[in-house]
Amino acid sequence: TIIDSRTHSSALLVKALGEYKNEVKAIVSASAIGYYGSDERKSSPFTEDDPPAEGFLGETCVLWEESITAAEKLNIRVCKIRTGIVLDKNGGALAEFVKPIKFGIATVLGTGKQVVSWIHIQDHCRIILQAIEHSNMKGAYNSVAPNPVTNKELVATAAKTMKGSFFLTIPVPAFLLKIMMGDRSTEVLKSTTVSASKISNTGFQFIYPTIEAALHNLLR
């Protein structure tokens, strides 16, 4: 269902563009940093030139991107945005992180050392807009902030922003997460350090390059 929802929709779009007269010049498509897998594969941050990971998420992202790349045969510019963990006060991952903090509890997942490659929702939207407007942007671009953090750093910063010093840090052991979440626990315990160099080299300026700036904006 996950793969079909992405590949079939892209195939329908490409088919329609090929069959009907249009003036579409570019397509900006979503993808995800799940393309890369975990840091165990590499000692330096992942870049857009790295090969995909084996396994379900890597395969999904490859098929997802290939399904829209077909539009290039129609002389349409295609830009694929590999999205990190988007921080948004209205939902998504951040909402889950702050639920226990509202009660004064900062929950660190596993060892807390796993790296989270995040981006503020506003910067993510600005990257998409730049991809639409800049005709020289094509291929894959990582949508992540230039300063990834560990899970422990993210949770601690969120707790300090919301509660000052009035919170208690509680680790949630990996085995407990596996019992609660099953195979999905792999994703919250996985470390993925992703580079923002390619998008930065286009001249893109992050409004929220640090986790402190991002969470101050979203949680204060």
* Unreliable parts: none
Output the strand order for the largest sheet. 1-2-7
Average per-residue pLDDT, rounded, comes to 94
Round the Cα radius of gyration to an integer and report it. Answer: 19 Å
Helix run count: 9
Q: Can you write the helix and strand succession as a string?
A: HEHEEHEEEHEEHEHHHH
Describe this structure in words.
The model has no long low-confidence stretch (mean pLDDT 94). It contains 9 helices and 9 strands. With 220 residues, the protein is α/β, with parallel strands linked by helices.
Note the main attributes of this structure.
220 residues, alpha/beta, 3-stranded parallel β-sheet, two-stranded parallel ribbon, 41% helix
Quick overview of this protein structure:
The chain is of the alpha/beta class. Helices cover 41% and strands 18% of the residues.
Q: What order do the helices and strands come in, and which of them pair?
A:
Elements: H1 2-19, E1 26-32, H2 56-69, E2 77-83, E3 85-88, H3 92-98, E4 105-109, E5 115-116, E6 118-120, H4 121-133, E7 139-143, E8 149-150, H5 151-163, E9 168-172, H6 174-181, H7 185-189, H8 197-200, H9 211-219
Parallel strand pairs: 1-2, 2-7, 3-6, 4-9
Antiparallel strand pairs: 5-8
Helix pairs in contact: 1-2, 5-9
